Amino acid sequence: MLGRRQEINLQLTQLLDSGLLAFCLWFAHYFRSRTLPVFIPDLVEIPPIEQLYWLMALVVPFTPLILEERGFYSGLVEKTTAQSLRQLMEALAGISLAVGALVVFLKWEVPSRSVAMLAIVMSGSALLLREEVQRARLRRRLASGKGRERVLLAGAGDDMRQLMEKVPAEQRAHIEVAGCVDITRQPISDLVAAMHEHSVARVLFAAQHVHFGKIEEAVQACETEGVEAWIAADFFQTAISRPTFDVLGGKLMLVFHSTPQVSWALLFKDLADRVVAALLLVLTLPLWLAAVIGIRLASPGGPVFFRQERAGHYGRPFMMWKFRTMHPDAEARRAELEFQNEMRGPAFKIANDPRVFPFGRWLRKFSIDELPQLLNVLRGEMSLVGPRPLPVYEIGKIEKHAQRRRLSVKPGLTCLWQITGRNGIRNFEDWVALDLQYIDNWSLWLDAKILLKTPAAVLRGVGAS
Q1: What pLDDT is recorded for position 292?
Q2: Residue ranges in 299-407 assigned as alpha helix (H)
Q3: What residues have CB less than 8 Å from 307, skipping those under 6 apart?
Q4: pLDDT value at position 1?
């Protein structure tokens, strides 16, 4: 099957890339420890390769996975070398960050920086060369037409044309359309005759505008002939949702999802959230101590922590924690300040809120008041990156149903809103637009970029109040 064949080809390519990475790391060590000293006798001796095994165990299996996430294995025929180089550099930067984190936090050592740098250069060159060879091979196959699988197209005329226009070049390189049968105008017997004439193993149905009864009859004909029937599942046109398949009670289900699917990337995100939150909790303990003492001195008579019910994943309420930055009577005074609300929409924001005491304003400026939410991340109620959680009563005021889609992922400590404008954004619709942009384009790389940009936004204190 074409889909299964592509999956196998991808896995074989990733195994090949893993082998190339392992060889490059080994050869870089061999070249530095055995070859270079012959020409430069004064070079410092480096430790044996056994001390690099932990690095190999990290780089070899995970780099191809990051490459896949960055799209390195997609669009092979159409994309340029510059695009491949950018995706490769992003993946190598990601794995380098992981190595750096292990070196900093676990004190694992890279015994020779020259070996690491040489391995990076060699690996990048080897992966680009492998891709160029594969691209040339695919282009030759497209040009020659040899070795392709013969298939039939069946369905309505325009639907068949649109289906083939959307098939990427990598897949077109593996199939040859032997004929087209318009089952809205021709009898099913013509389809059967075409299967016999062209000896095809598969029929591709483009049946968006074909009656279901006609499709069923055509599929039964394929079943009788022992020919695979592939049906394009585009019966419904959606603007946002992406269709996938699943099984429920033994029945095949067509699923339309408009949020990131359950995947290894999401599982890694959840694991990384908890690990990084635990590390940040330890590293920021001095700030916690300063905040506790400062709040006790600046605003006695109230609790150190502020707890409020916020809307979490799919709107499920949870208790969110912050350092208290307002006077104890802040909630009681909210009603009298409603007319000063500077946000257009259900959210409530005041640039110079009179309920905030001076030390609390300093905590807010540098987002120190948000640190207790690391506990919410550890509990799985929040993520490091995601739409900021709104109070439950504000969620109830949302009038546009589309804006509730921001609840379809876990809320986060930081987000696009946090790094692009913070409280400088006054329109709730603009805020939600940034959240939906994050959801629609989510990737581990996007999370990493937001996390890397957050400290600078916090230190600048732009828009904080």
Answers
A1: 95
A2: 330-337, 358-365, 373-378, 392-395
A3: 319, 320, 321, 322
A4: 43
Angle ∠(394,397,401) on CA atoms, nearest 5: 115
Q: How far apart are CA 86 and CA 388, in angstroms?
A: 31
For every residue of 376-420, DSSP letters joined together read: HHHTTS-EEESPPPPBHHHHTT---GGGGGGGGS--EEE-HHHHH
Phi, psi of 311 (to 5 degrees): -90, 120
Q: Which residue in 9, 46, 2, 7 sits closest to 28, CA to CA?
A: 46
CA–CA dist 199, 193 (Å, integer) = 10
| Count of beta carbons in the 10 Å neighbourhood of residue 127 | 24
Dist. CA 86–CA 51, nearest whole Å:
30
Contacts of 230 (CB under 8 A, 6+ apart): 202, 203, 204, 205
What is the structure's pLDDT at 112?
A: 84
Domain ranges of the chain: 2-143, 145-235, 264-460
Quote the radius of gyration of the chain (alpha carbons, Å). 29
| Mean per-residue pLDDT pooled into runs of 10, the chain (465 residues) | 66 93 94 89 86 91 91 84 91 88 83 88 94 86 71 88 80 81 92 89 83 87 84 68 68 70 81 94 95 93 92 90 89 72 69 86 91 96 94 82 82 87 69 88 90 84 54
* pLDDT of res. 342: 65
Yes or no: say if 395 and 346 are a contact pair by the CB < 8 Å rule. Answer: yes
Q: CA 26 to CA 4: how far, in whole Å?
A: 33
d(C-alpha 126, C-alpha 28), whole Å: 13
Distance CA 27, CA 37 (A): 15
Contact indicator for 96, 124 with CB cutoff of 8 Å: no
Model pTM above 0.70: no
**CATH superfamily assigned to domain 145-235:** AF0625-like (3.40.50.10700)
The pair phi, psi for residue 278, each rounded to 5°, is: -65, -40
CA distances from 23 to 19, 26, 146, 299 (A): 6, 5, 33, 62
Residue type, 27: F
In angstroms, the Cα distances linking 120 to 112, 128, 271, 301, 399 are 13, 12, 27, 58, 52
